[in-house]
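Sequence in, structure out. Go.
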Amino acid sequence: MSFTAQVKDELSRVEGECPYCAYAQLSAITRVCGTLSFRGSGRYSIRVATETGAVARTMIKLTHELFELETPLTVRHSNLHKTRNYLIEIPEQDELENDLVWLGILERGHGLTPGVPARLVERDCCKRAYVRGAFMAGGFIADPRGDFHLEIAVTGEEFARQLMGIMADLGVEARLNRRRGSYAIYLKSFDEIETLLRAMGATRTAQAINNVRRVKSLKNDVNRRVNAEIANQARSTGAAAEQLELIARAERTIGLRALPPALREFCLLRRENPEVSLAALGKRCNPVSSKSAMYHRVLRLQRLVEEAASTNDQ
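Output:
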């Protein structure tokens, strides 16, 4: 089972918080993945196709509980993709037109409702139910261990923007992308995806992605520290090589025996320990010296070498 299917299965078990939540959820499922057919004089039929059993189960359950409509189900198997496709048909029935008006799918005398039916999403709980239905019908969520994102595919720009408005009311700022005649409402932020999942009722999934995020954060922190340590080591190695070259020049131009004791100690310790940092080298001095003190020894040695070189040139 894909990660998306697992989330939808969890959502299919979420109960509405008020009697109207079921209508909001069924309305969204029908609107997003249903196809409405019209044969004149109030004769309508609906076909809903989905690859997720949880969506088909929820659609049939709500349709029977709320309207007692006939809902023949056909299950088709794809040998190529090894998947199932569920086709739910709601044939022409006497009360179907009234039911579609109640669900906000139709406006009597005006045809298909272009946006979200406002009266079905007046309560916050119904907004959560509506978004839950929309995600179940057209949603996708990537495995959080990879390139994490969530999207809901819908048709109609007005509907898409109104659905985004509902999501904003739930604390989530989604983005919209037009895609081959349809629209994808998408999120990429871990925080916003977790907020939306909790709002829809997928608390188990929300907790799971939060755990994944913590692991990712820990790995990223470890990687940053390792990279910083490697960079520090590279800088220390480069600096040590420059110091060894400086010591070699000092030996040629001045002679190590002629150097002040502190500088001679530095030169000898650096040659004995070419791989350690200045701070570590200072700890091997007698008495122990700080990193700053060791750095000043390098600068002092450099000045002496430059002065000696200038004198020789004259």
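Check: The two ends are 84 Å apart (CA to CA). The chain has two domains: 3-201, 234-313.
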